[in-house]
Design brief:
Rossmann fold, Dehydroquinate synthase-like, alpha domain, two-stranded parallel sheet, about 50% helix, globular, oxidoreductase, MAR, Ald_DH/histidinol_DH, maleylacetate reductase activity, alcohol dehydrogenase (NAD+) activity
Amino acid sequence: MIVLRKKKFSDDAEALQIANGTEYGLGSGLWTNNLQRAHLFAKKIKAGMCWINSYKRVNPGSPFGGVGKSESQKTKSILVDNGFSSVLVITTPEQEETGLMMAKQLGELAVGVYPHAVMHVPTGVADEAIQFATKKNIDCCLALGGGSTIGLAKAIALKTGIPIVAIPTTYAGSEMTTVYGLTENNLKKTGKDIKVLPKVVIYDPELSLTLPAGISASSGMNAMAHAVEALYAQDKNPIISMMAIESIKSLSQALPKIVKNSQDIEARKQATYGAWLAGICLGSVGMAIHHKLCHTLGGTYNLPHAQAHAITLAYSAHYNRKADIQAMDQLAQALGGQSHEQVGQLIYKLNQQLGIPLALKDIGLPEDGPSEVARITCESPYYNPRSYERDELETLLQRAYLGLEPR
């Protein structure tokens, strides 16, 4: 695998041809003392994100809109620049008013607001949305919201090929991936398809200022779960592992500040950065036992997605603590600890600090849930660096059900 390659070029046109001719492209970096030239180049390079003279901040010159003040106010011009003229705004019922405000901002570009996104994307909900979008003859779905909204836009794109522009308002990370999920008959199934990867992602930390502290915390821990599992993924690699550690550090530092002061814009920016990195991890490598457990909890019992991830992460990390000692030592150190033996307790204590519910029973899991989740997980497992031991999993899930520290 090529990690870094040095190659000479004669002018900007040749440099652009070299950059866009590679199979890589999750991120790119430009170093120059001519910022005007850099921003012009950044708009032409085919990469998920483009840094200018730094790998520590994200620039408005990136193709995805960057991170900056009131980036969402540029949505109309971004849509026009990408050739869209008939846009459907998608939200949850709770965010319908925000969607209407966005539609008003878009003016003649917006054909309306579709406020029917719900958790876990039930196939019935997806079918109705696909029918509506097809009837409206739109050329873009603007997903304004979190994982549920972006998930519904992905279901539409999967069936119709209609491009997505995403404006995330939580830290779910789904906007950076080709992963989609649909729930049918209480079973959640996931897949990957390039059609569901948003064409444009617009990050605006100011939109998350109204996200309640509790939801922010759970959503951020949901993002962290993507980064944690990237560390021991079957197809892990040094670049994604580096991004995963940076994501975990950023989120673990930002989330306590947000819980303390939900209007802390610098903490919101740091959390958005961490979530973006986590989304790249999710989209670049496979996930493992934690995501299987959470897909079962969500698909079978319709538990709140972010909270299920936040609670379960401590137990899945504890289960895998000896499966990849080097990776788990890195995780512990990113969370302020030292040893792989601490990872479950460190995440559990972070959840305590953030005020996240600690018990699965408190978010809706029935008493027989741990046994059933263990059964379903072991009968159709994802890859995991250690084997699935049903009795051990059930015991851990019982502790998660009661909210007891993993051990």
